[in-house]
Amino acid sequence: MTHSQNDTAKSYDKIAEKYEQQWAAYLKHTHHALFTELITESDDVILDVSCGTGLLAKYLVEYNFPFKKLILNDISPKMQQKAKQRLGDHPDVIFTQQDASKLRLDGFEINKILCLSAFHNYENQLKALQRFFDLLQPEGRLYLLDWNSTGWFRPVNWLIKRWVPEIINTQSLQETELLLEQAGFKTTRKMAWRFRYWKLFFVEAEKKR
């Protein structure tokens, strides 16, 4: 069965209340992995392209990662409502609710995009990466962490795809690098590892001039 972005939004709306409790260990691990690789500056305009409940943004603020503006986008209204409850009063946090592949953010000079555990939910991943490329300033950076569809994780991924009512379109690290290259990015750092039954990868990619 083929699912749409609307199905994905509805699926996350349903689990918004229990999301962080249900996936606590996974979220702790992946957030720590991303923060280990992330460096921000006080003049950064950062886009968290699929912010979910705002957990990543919460840690950015609590751990004193510097930034000028933090834009939180998500396709799920109820997930993003959790983010608004957390950071709605922060003067430098902005909220928007759009499809990642169709994002319009006029007036913002974005130089860092964060995509954490969401890439596999995008219907058209190349189109999403091309949109990220267009949104970024020259030499801007994309930080992408997601599931790694290789080896024994392929059948696990197949089971997940049959289990959940949302888009599951998992790529390997190598496949993602090829998509990044097609979109105009240059990979600057990468790594792959396992956590429990998950296989994961991280890529930092730069917008070529």
Please write out the topology.
Layout: H1 5-15, H2 19-22, H3 24-37, E1 45-48, H4 55-62, E2 69-73, H5 77-87, E3 93-96, E4 110-116, H6 125-135, E5 136-147, H7 153-163, H8 173-183, E6 185-195, E7 198-207
Parallel strand pairs: 1-2, 1-4, 2-3, 4-5
Antiparallel strand pairs: 5-7, 6-7
Helix pairs in contact: 6-8
Characterization of the model:
With 209 residues, the protein is an alpha/beta fold. 39% of the residues lie in helices and 25% in strands. It is built from eight helices and seven strands. The protein has a seven-stranded mixed beta sheet, with helices on both faces. Helix 6 links the parallel strand 4 and strand 5. The chain starts with a helix and ends with a strand. 37% of the residues are buried. The mean pLDDT is 92.
Number of strands: 7
Give me the number of helical elements: 8
Mean pLDDT: 92
| Whole-angstrom Rg | 16 Å
Beta-strand content: 25-35%
The largest β sheet comes out as: 7 strands, mixed
Unreliable stretches: none
The separation of the N and C termini measures 40 Å
Apparent shape? globular
Order of the strands making up the biggest sheet: 3-2-1-4-5-7-6
Which structural class matches the secondary elements?
A: alpha/beta
Element pattern in H and E: HHHEHEHEEHEHHEE
What helical percentage do the residues reach?
A: 25-40%
